[in-house]
Amino acid sequence: MYDEEVGRWIRLHQDVLYLVGRKNGKTPLVSAINLAEFFCGPEGIKILCSSNDYEQADLMFQAINAMREESPSLEKVTRVNIKGIFFGNRKRVSRKGKFSFKNKGSIRKISAKTGAKEGRNIGVGAVDEVHEMKDNTSVMPIRQALSTQDEPLYFELTTEGFTNDGYLDGRMIEARRVLNGELDRPRWLIWLYTQDSEKEVWQDEKTHVKSNPGLGTIKKWSFTRRMVDEARTNQEMRAFVLAKDFNIKQNNAAAWLTDEDITSEDEFDIEEFRGAFAIGGVDLSKSGDLASARALLMKNGKKYTLQRYFIPETKIPALSKEDRVKFEAWCAKDLITVSTGNENDFRHVTAWFYRLFQDYGIRFFKVGYDKWSAVYWVKEMEELGFDTVRISQDWGSLSEPMKLVRTDLQSKLINYNQHPIDRWCLENTAVEMNGKMEIRPVKIQGKDDKKIDGTLTLIFVYKVYMDNRTEFLQLVNESR
């Protein structure tokens, strides 16, 4: 393209969006282009590899370095250290020219979490896995850093993901408008390897090459077939495979349980567990919101839960009309402890656990809690002899217990005594997934006013149970 500002013919495509299924060689391909620009581009060119985290950015950097090391002629005129790849080799010193120390060209890596991204001056920028970005705050400093170059080159390479209304969603809308001729962006090169529909994923494997151009050469057919077979019966695997292997965007807050999963006709009497061992779970939540406490008991391989809910009195009138009727009915049945004023009095939570011990001899092995406003409550519990365990509400901590809760609900191995608030919380819960196939509970999209505190405490007690299964089961068996 002839550029009147520069006064000469320059590179046509300066902005590249490359969307392709996982394991089709997108990172090595862009790494090779970066390496070519480093050696064949102008002297002093600076190249930046970026991603959401440092490890992902390092994958591209290491791919570039591996290719550099494969070539004796390239390796002998460059050097690599913890900061990056640079021209000049201390063992083979060149006094002048492109391959000497005087050439200040470099290849470096940063992550979205890296500070001081502003003020850079680069010729090539490559951002990997942009599907995880919620906005453009990570990419715009890199794009702005290219603004002084005559022939900059900017790459965005990714698969589809799970982030709703994220940065990639906006880019994909614009990209499709360009491909449809609705927008004129002559310098934007767009490669979208996607399926035409989800239906063809399950019905015709020959169409899989639409999202996976490397099938049979880079990516194994057997691997893709195995992933598709597993995805037919596994909810998390289905969403992951559709997004990562076939670039079909998935809602990151999909439904978690069916009505059949939640429905339980069993009830039990607390007297059956007099003198038993239990695991506790508490979601103290925000001071002005619903709080939940739970006890997990076991008998004959089945799990039973006792629960109690807490809410400030001023919050009930502020609920929607539908929910207000429910809460007033639950309060009338003594299913909720109401605190005076605008805040939950967490002493009521402590009293509930102590009452189970005092009235029924139920001994708590450990009590898991979230971190919100828990300092004084934890101190109070520990003064009464309870062993408390803090539970992080991140992906890695909640994923496996949440999966086990669903499996046990589906297998009817959880008896929550048909508690109506438990059922309501479970109905309000959706599952959110990240790129590592880890899950965590969130509210169903569009229902931000609903509560899932009961679901959280159920997951918390399962987390404590899974971390201490052998020791807890031994106590359960000895107490029979």
Automatic annotation (TrEMBL):
Pfam families: TerL_ATPase (PF03354), TerL_nuclease (PF20441). It comes from the Bacteria. Residues 14-169 form the Terminase large subunit-like ATPase domain. InterPro entries: P-loop_NTPase, TerL_ATPase, TerL_nuclease, Terminase_largesu-like. Residues 189-461 form the Terminase large subunit-like endonuclease domain. Signal peptide: none annotated. This is Phage terminase large subunit-like protein. It comes from Paenibacillus artemisiicola.
